[in-house]
Amino acid sequence: MVENPLIVIVGATASGKSGLAIRLAEEFDGEIVSCDSVAVYREMEIGTAKPSFEDRARVPHHMIDVVSPDEACTAGDYSRGAREAIAGVTERGKLPIVAGGTGLYLRALIDGLFPAPPRQPELRDELRRHAAEHGAESLHQRLTALDPAAANLIHANDVSKVVRAIEVSMAAQQPMTEMWEQGRDALSGYRILRMGLDPGRERLYERINQRAAEMFERGLVEETERLVERYDYDCRPLSSLGYAEAVSVLRGEMTRDQAVGKAQQGHRNYAKRQGTWFRRDAEIAWLLGAGGDDSVMDEAMRMVARWCPPMR
Fold first, then answer.
1. How far is CA 215 from the centre of its chain?
2. Which CATH architecture has domain 121-179?
3. Which EC number(s) does the record attach to this protein (predicted)?
4. What is the CATH number of domain 4-113+184-307?
5. Which residues contribute to the annotated binding site?
6. Which of 92, 101, 122, 250 has the most CB atoms within 10 Å of its CB?
C-alpha cells in the first residue's frame, strides 16, 4: 500500500507552530490543517490566536472557522473533518501539514476514537450542577481522582469536556484514557513525520505572557462582549482560556489587569500540561527553539525534505 507523507507539528501554546507550518507549506507546496479545539469556532479571532487573515490567504488552512460558537465540536467531529481535509489536500497533490496543540483532537485524528459507552443524561446534569455550585476546579478534581491522565490534558475551565470524561470513566468503570487503547480506527495510508517545538520553559512563558497581554490590548474583552450579546454567557467556547477571564471583566468580577494576569497563569499551566502530554509520544522529534527561529526552520526544512522531497 502506497503511503502518502503527512507532517504533524505539535508543541505548547505560543511555541510558534503556525509560523513554522506556514513556512513549510510555502516551501513544500502544502496546506495546513489546524488542530485546535477553539480555532474551529467562527467569530472568535483574538482569543484563539488563529493565523491572521493575511497568513490564511498565503497558504490554505482547514479546520478553522468550521462551526458556530453555539454548536458543539467534539473530538470525533474534528477527527472526521480533519481526515476529510487531509484526504482532499493529498488528492490535490499537496502536502498536508497538521499544526496545533490540542492533544485530544490530534489523538482522535491519528489514532482514532474508542467505542465510548452510551451517554448518561442524569449523571451529566448532576456533574454540571456540581460545577455550578462548587466551581469548575472542584469538578476537575473529581476527574483527577478518576483519570489523572485525562485531567492533565483537559483544562478545568472546559466544563463540558471534564463532564464527558467523568461520564465515560464512570460508565465504563475504567479511566477514559485507558479506553483510548481499545478498538480504535487509526488513520491509515500516511507516513507521519511528527515534530515538536520546545523553546524552553523560561522563553515559552515570556512568549505566553506577551501573547496573553496582547490579546487584551487588541480587544479581547470587546470581542467577548459581542459574543455574549449574540450567544449569552453560557456559550461553551467562552469558558476557554482568555475568554473566561474576559467574561469575568464583563461581569465586574475582576479588573482588566487581574484578568490579564489570570489568563497568563492559565496559559502557562495549560502549556505545562501540553508538554507532559506530548512528551509521552516517543515518535515526536523535538526541535529546540520556537517556530520562527532560523535554526528551527532550517532543521525542520531538512527533516521534511528527507521525509518527502519538495513537491514543486
1. 17
2. Orthogonal Bundle (1.10)
3. 2.5.1.75
4. 3.40.50.300
5. 11-18
6. 101
